[in-house]
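Sample log: Alpha-galactosidase.
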Amino acid sequence: METKILNYTFKCNSDIDLTCASQSDDYIKIKIDINFGKKVKPEPIEISWFTPANGAFTCWSPLVFQDRKLRPNWGKLETESRSGHGMPIQCYIGSDDNNRASVYLSDVRTPITIRSGILEENGKIEWKLVLFSQLIGEISEYSTELVIDARQLPYNNIISEAVKCWSDKEGASDDKPEAAFDLLYSTWYSYHQRVTDAALIPELEAAAKLGMKTVIIDDGWQLETSARGYAYCGDWKAAKNKIPDLKSFSDKVHSLGMKVMLWFAVPFVGEFAEVRERFKDMYLNDLREGQMAYVLDPRYPETRKYLCDIYENAVREWDLDGLKLDFIDRFRLTDVSKTSHPDMDTESLQDAICTLLCEVNERLNAIKPGFLIEFRQGYVGPIMQKYGNMLRAEDCPQDSVKNRVAVINLRLTTEKAAVHSDMLMWEQYDTPEDAAEQIINVMFSVPQISVKINELSKNHYDMLEFYLKLWQSKRDTLMHGELYAKAPSANYSIVTAKDDDNLVSVLYSEKLFIADKDYECITLINGTGVLGLYVDGNNLNSSYSYDIYDCMGNVVQSGETGLVSIRYFDVPKSGVLIMNAKK
């Protein structure tokens, strides 16, 4: 079928209703309604149309990291979305950081895919929207709203409008515990599955001295071996040769002033788990070659109760303050689970995922209000933000640029969530300046530290201490201030957070900072990899005293400046310039 609405012609492989819900200059909202006439398991429905590219220079999507090239229509940019994965939005952006063409949907629950690419014949953007892009349960009708936005506003404004649309619809909570914003130590890169109480307690004593207030005990606490994989997941018993008395361990960590979080792979029941047979008819998948774990089907109340009981018992028995709930995006229907069963209390997998997380959230917060729950990038969309209060960047070991892009993507698509970096690690032979880049690139998130602190060289320790103190002193501005990330095409060349009195800016691939007005304190971090920064002070009226620090916290230069024009400062690689307005 073909439908014309204003200047757009929509083609669809099914009979659906498309109507204009609202419009203004360069903006249209379209209502999509589908009546199947009876309950069916819908096949994918494809809707395609074209928009002008309007000088698009780069593209943006929540799970696109460094690769922001414009794709051809035969190799389209693909964005997947469902309740437990992604967000349904794509943006085309000009070289001026203004929007050129953006598309997003109001529905963040149903499996949806957006694809787009440049048509060689005329330079237009070809869009394809796929509804029901993965198997879902039976439905008789469906509706959503499609927004096509060509207003040349700052790209982050368009993303903010989409986020507000989703938040208003899903009711995401703004009430995030302050502990979710505390510095954190993770055991993953530093210890992997070789976690033991004997090794960790001295390490956490050192972490506490550096201001870290939470530890995540990652994968390994439940395994007698240190072999990778998930073949033993599902029983969730403490390994006797790792941390046999988790309650005693938790008490020791609490005495350091730190909270304790424990890792769980939520959907997995391994092929060697004791409970494997108990749930043999309640899995979403069959084991295939190379796989080591089944995925529980949360549409069964028995599986949800089992998981909730496991977590509640762990929290009560071991006095835990939070959980790292991993692999939620692995819940998906397959050919072996596409039919319903009388023992299920819902046919919708997406609804079942939400029911599970809601039950977990309610039960654990009843034990400890403000309970910490970490989710990982991928499953950090508008619905997930109701159930998790710590949203971590996707795994990217030692990749500081991806970590930067990942956390900024998260900041742009959340409102008040505690965005966390992927765990930070570096090589022991790195220069302190190179090692500092791991922290510099995630300054606008909560850094998760995952190096063996007691084995650091003095230079590395001094660098870590300096940057963690700097982050803590600027935390309110960094995490709650107004954020602007320039040039997504350049992996965000300058990122700035500011409030009424403070401004913090990290210069990644540009050396010139342009001040917009006076602040009590301006902090500029040199993430360019080379010596020197320039400051354009034409908009400043105050005089400033300044100190320049190297990455280990040593003052290398001090002075005063009126900054009435562009001035050069000898800020070392990975160093910091702090300017304080003179009274």
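Observation: The chain has a mean pLDDT of 95.
Observation: The longest strand covers residues 27-40.
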